[in-house]
From TrEMBL:
Ligand binding (substrate): H29, K33, T55, G56, T57, T58, S75, G76, H108
Listed name of the protein: Methylglyoxal synthase
Domain MGS-like residue range list: 16-162
Organism in which the protein naturally occurs: Litchfieldella rifensis
Family per record: Belongs to the methylglyoxal synthase family.
PANTHER family in UniProt: METHYLGLYOXAL SYNTHASE
Gene3D superfamilies: Methylglyoxal synthase-like domain (3.40.50.1380)
Top-level division of the source organism's lineage: Bacteria
Keywords: Lyase
Active-site residues per Swiss-Prot or TrEMBL entry: D81 (proton donor/acceptor)
Enzyme class: lyase
Amino acid sequence: MATDNTDNRPRQQTQRTLPARKRIALIAHDGKKDELLVWTKRWQDTLASHQLVGTGTTARRITHELGLEVEGLMSGPLGGDQQIGARITEQRLDLLIFFWDPFAPQPHDPDVKALLRLAALWNIPVACNAASADFMISSPYVAEDFDVGIPDAGGWIAERIG
Ligand SMILES: O=C(CO)COP(=O)(O)O
């Protein structure tokens, strides 16, 4: 592993536990919302035992059409992706199911990229389509405490102040 001073990655890792009752974000771009609705309906019983959150329009449609309780944040183009990203950074989200649309540029593409970056950084399991979401939600780890390695934020700051 490179350790020279051009490597500005967090060097220390720590752990956090994804709890048995997961906090799951459900998000879909407009061209993918119907697919997410179909997927959510298929896994409705499993999803109901977890805590769900979503961007505004996605959350509203799931609640309206399936009766599942989903906390609705801001709509994506109005900042919802950033709110989900903040939850990841604060270790308040455990799984991200985000059916982003590979055929439709979004006005808030920088926010989408930022969200996916934070999910990668904080080692959050991410599913981007129905097949990956099937694999994720059928994992035995979904209903168990599960330890993941994350950057040591305190160590990172300590290193930077010398
Ligand atoms: O744009 C989104 C994600 O980038 C989703 O937002 P809505 O759920 O409000 O459509």
